[in-house]
Write a structure and sequence with these properties.
14 helices, mainly alpha
Length: about 350
């Protein structure tokens, strides 16, 4: 147990240091006085508008989650679902991906819904959002092929060259994974009767049943049209969040809606990176997008990345804390599924 905790702490510290390293690279060789001037002179009314749009996207995400939960015949309130969602975002600010478990945990306790079923719905959400992300990724390539070609070559060519230069290492790695899978499969076939009697197997089996039940929610859902509408609304407000944010700085104010899609889509890679709160990774990617694709000065690019990241982090912390407080003080509200 101690060794496991130590590994977890070391892993967290590694990714934190990685994020800080990327942050240092993002600010390296910049005119810090100019960056400070850009941030100081930013129009913070546009930041406020951007954050309000973000809240709308989160509300639609909570409403969409309600649809998935409702398809399993469980009841939820939008208020508690939104509060649980924002609590998860608050936790993600400090510990990446843990927020997905936390939001399921707090909603499970609040509304008496099985945790594994809720976690299955979260996976359903992520699969669908990954599909939307892929569509956006294709669109920004199609509509901005000329702008993106140099950017993609600069960032991916060195990586691809390394892969082909070390083909034996790649072959050994994937060969080892296949061998490990075969060994585990043979072990399972020889010992499955004995394994099925173990307590951990039953717990795992029950968890997987609930998980699959949650994943199937989209197929069973009656209001598929409403689910699609909520999904489009979520991503529309995400794009508007970035697009409106462009007006904070004079140098980015000319960027259009397509540029908003580009920054959102590629910048999301920094947010989902396994570094606390996306720190460093988001700054590095957004700065690269703005400077290499749209020829924004590095000082203005990093100022925009810093402002948007700080604004979103502050929103997650404040609204997330309020959401968790709401879940605590509303204990007198009877759980929606007490009779189920």
């Amino acid at each position: 147990m101690l060794a496991k905790r130590l590994i977890t702490i070391l892993q967290y510290l590694f990714f934190l240091l990685l994020g800080l390293g990327l942050l240092w690279l993002s600010f390296q060789k910049l005119n810090m006085k100019e960056v400070y001037r850009e941030i100081l002179n930013a129009d913070y009314w546009w930041m406020a508008a951007s954050l309000i749009l973000t809240i709308f996207s989160h509300l639609f995400r909570a409403a969409r989650w309600n649809l998935l939960i409702g398809s399993m015949n469980y009841k939820t309130r939008l208020s508690t679902t939104f509060a649980a969602l924002m609590t998860g975002y608050l936790v993600n600010t400090g510990v990446p991906r843990l927020g997905e478990f936390v939001r399921c945990g707090v909603l499970s306790k609040k509304e008496k819904i099985p945790f594994n079923a809720l976690f299955g719905t979260v996976i359903s959400e992520r699969i669908f959002d990954l599909l939307v992300f892929f569509i956006f990724f294709v669109l920004i390539i199609v509509f901005q092929l000329q702008l993106l070609s140099n950017f993609l070559h600069e960032f991916f060519d060195p990586f691809l060259n390394k892969i082909f230069a070390n083909i034996w290492s790649i072959s050994i790695f994937f060969g080892s994974l296949i061998l490990l899978f075969v060994i585990l499969l043979v072990y399972w076939k020889k010992n499955r009767t004995k394994l099925r009697t173990k307590a951990f197997y039953q717990k795992f089996s029950d968890f997987m049943v609930g998980l699959l039940d949650g994943i199937k929610t989209i197929k069973r859902m009656k209001k598929k049209g409403l689910f699609l509408f909520y999904t489009l609304a979520i991503w529309f407000f995400y794009i508007m969040m970035i697009y409106v944010g462009f007006f904070m700085l004079k140098e980015t104010s000319h960027l259009n809606f397509i540029a908003g899609i580009t920054v959102l889509t590629l910048g999301s890679l920094g947010i989902i990176a396994p570094v606390p709160g996306g720190i460093g990774a988001y700054h590095f990617i957004v700065k690269a997008i703005l400077t290499e694709i749209y020829h924004i000065s590095p000082d203005a690019a990093i100022s925009f990345a810093t402002l948007t990241h700080a604004g979103q982090t502050l929103l997650n912390v404040v609204v997330g804390a309020l959401g968790y407080t709401f879940l605590i003080v509303s204990k007198k509200l009877k759980p929606s599924n007490d009779k189920l």
